[in-house]
Amino acid sequence: MADVKGKPCVICVAITGSLPTKANNPAVPITVAEQVESTHEAFEAGASIAHCHVRDDEGKPTSDPERFARLKEGIEAHCPGMIVQLSTGGRSGAGQARGGMLPLRPDMASLSVGSNNFPTRVYENPPDLVDWLAAEMLRHGVKPEIEAFDLSHILRAHEMQQKGQLAGTPYVQFVMGVKNAMPADRDVFDYYIRTVERLFGKDAPWCAAGIGPAQIVLNDWAVSSGGHARTGLEDNVRLDRDRLAPSNAALVARVVALCEKYERPVADWRQARQILGLAAPM
Ligand SMILES: [Zn+2]
C-alpha cells in the first residue's frame, strides 16, 4: 500500500443531486435555504468542496442559473473559503442549458467527457457538447472536475489537456457503483490510479465517489490509497442497510473517521485550494 500517512485528504460533499427526494430521506436539502444550511454543517464537519445541483419549486432538477447564483452566494457567505463546484450533469438540463451557470464563475464545475449507461437511460455527453462545456469553463476560469464513469473518460481528459481544452492538471473523479455503468471493482480502481499517475504525473490529485452502498467502500479505497473522497446524500442516503443518514455532515463524519484510521489530516479549504491549484476566494 502507498504511504499516505500525513497526506491531507480533500473531502467533497455532494449535497443534493438530481434524484434523491424527501421521501427517500427527509435530510436531503431541496430549497436553497436548506442547501446552504446542510452545506454549512458539512463544512464544519470537514468538507472543503460543495458539489451542487439545484431544484425547482417542485423539487425537480433544473439548471436555472438564477438558482445556482443564489446557492453559490449563500455558500460563499456562510462557508467562507469553501470551494463551490456546480454540476453540469445531464439530469438537470439538455444541451447547452447544462452550462448556463458557468458565467457565474464558480471555483469548479463537473465535466463529463464521454457517454455511458445510467440505471434507466443513456447518459449522453456528445463530443460537441463536451467541447463546448470545456471551452466555457476555460473562458470563465472555472476548473473542471472530470467525472470518470469509465476508463476511456480518463484518456479523453488527457487528450483534451494535450489539445489545450483543459487548463492545468485535470482533477479526475472515479465514479463507481452506478447501475449499468462501472461497478465498484478494486482492480479497475487500482488501474484508474495507475492511469492518472501515468498520464498526469505521480502527484496528480484524484478523487473517488461510490453510489449507494459503494459510497463507503470507495471512501475507504480512496483515503487508504492517497486520493481524495466524495460523499453526500446525492450519492447515498443511508448509513447502512437499516439507518438513513441523518445529514450530509454525518456522511462527511464517516470520511473523517477513515482519515483518522489511515492517519491522514482532513484538508481545510486553504489546503484544498492549494492541492487543486485554485486561487484564494476574493
Ligand atoms: Zn452531481
From TrEMBL:
Stored PANTHER family: 3-KETO-5-AMINOHEXANOATE CLEAVAGE ENZYME (PTHR37418:SF2), 3-KETO-5-AMINOHEXANOATE CLEAVAGE ENZYME-RELATED (PTHR37418)
Keywords: Metal-binding, Transferase, Zinc
Transferase found in the keyword field: yes
Protein's name in the database: 3-keto-5-aminohexanoate cleavage protein
Molecular function, one GO term: 3-keto-5-aminohexanoate cleavage activity
Gene3D superfamilies, alphabetized: Aldolase class I (3.20.20.70)
Keyword Lipoprotein: no
Protein origin, superkingdom: Bacteria
Cofactor: Zn(2+)
Annotated Pfam families: BKACE
InterPro entries linked to this entry: Aldolase_TIM (IPR013785), BKACE (IPR008567)
Protein source organism: Tabrizicola oligotrophica
